Amino acid sequence: MSLRKRLIACLDMTDGRVVKGTRFADLVDAGDPVGLCLRYAADGADEIVILDIGATVDARPALLALISRAAAVLDIPLAVGGGVRSYDDAAAFLDAGADKVSINSAALADPALVSRIAQRLGSQSVVVAVDAAAHEGSWRVRSVAGTLETGRDAVAWASEAVERGAGEILLTSIDRDGTRSGYDLQLTRAVADAVRVPVIASGGAGSAADVIAVLREGGASAALLASLLHFGMVRLPELKARLAESGVEVRRPLPAPRPEEVAAWRG
User: Fold this and answer.
1) H helix and E strand count, the chain
2) Domains of the chain by residue range
3) How confident is the model at residue 60 (pLDDT cuts 50, 70, 90)?
4) 3-state secondary structure at position 14
5) Residue 12 designated active-site
6) Which of 40, 59, 194, 256 is most buried by a 10 A CB count?
């Protein structure tokens, strides 16, 4: 029996505000992080991910006080990333109320960091984020918010991260990020087939059909949603209704919407 799929709301943050851009650039304000956490949890998000995207670039610690505020109002899992450079950083996130930590640039610089955190905090709390861009028929990993080419193959790095103790892979297609042109199904399937842990697909969601495709054809265990939610293109109750119609089972199923609600969602 396959595991139920998850819909995860992603809040990219900088300077205390949620932002969203295209291919990691041209950021625009998308709202207050705690307010959005409350809204998405009430709408049926299975998890929330908060990524302090400026922390690594600015070489500063993540906003622990804000994480504490968000964790205090949520009754669903919270993952946090950005600026995790050590075991102590990861432990501080969990002490602040997060359920999982997402590691990216620091893991690339010191892959053993994944093992050190997993051994002490458990693999279930370790997410390794892989930001990948197409390169000569495969995909290469970039770090520092997509600004630094690492030369690493994305599939190979995801596999290594899992062997070192990662409990999940958060896989972002830089080419699709913010474009609303659909997830990179080939990239997602390649990584999902290569690892034995859940893969969270990120980058490119523009419609319910895109989400259905990445959860079915792409082999993802979860779909990360940002622009689609922040800018009101779809709401989670509508999306879960569409997934149910297509036969995709999700966690936290919502009560069936009234016919007039479905008609309104579909215009």
Assistant:
1) 12, 12
2) 6-266
3) very low
4) strand
5) yes
6) 40
Q: Which CATH fold would you assign to the domain 6-266? A: TIM Barrel (3.20.20)
Residues in the chain: 267
Q: Alpha-carbon distance 129 to 142, whole Å?
A: 10
Tokens 């390794």 -> residue: 128
Tokens of 135: 């390169």
- Of 12, 46, 89, 177, catalytic: 12
DSSP 62: -
The catalytically annotated residue of 46, 52, 131, 177 is: 131
The overall average pLDDT reported for the chain is 87
Residue 131 catalytic? yes
**pTM of the shown model:** 0.88
Neighbours of 162 (CB within 10 A): 22
Strand blocks (E) in the chain: 6-14, 17-22, 25-31, 47-52, 78-81, 100-103, 126-135, 138-143, 148-153, 168-173, 199-202, 222-225
Distances (CA, A) of 252 to 8, 11, 36, 140: 12, 20, 18, 35
Q: What's the confidence (pLDDT) of residue 215?
A: 97
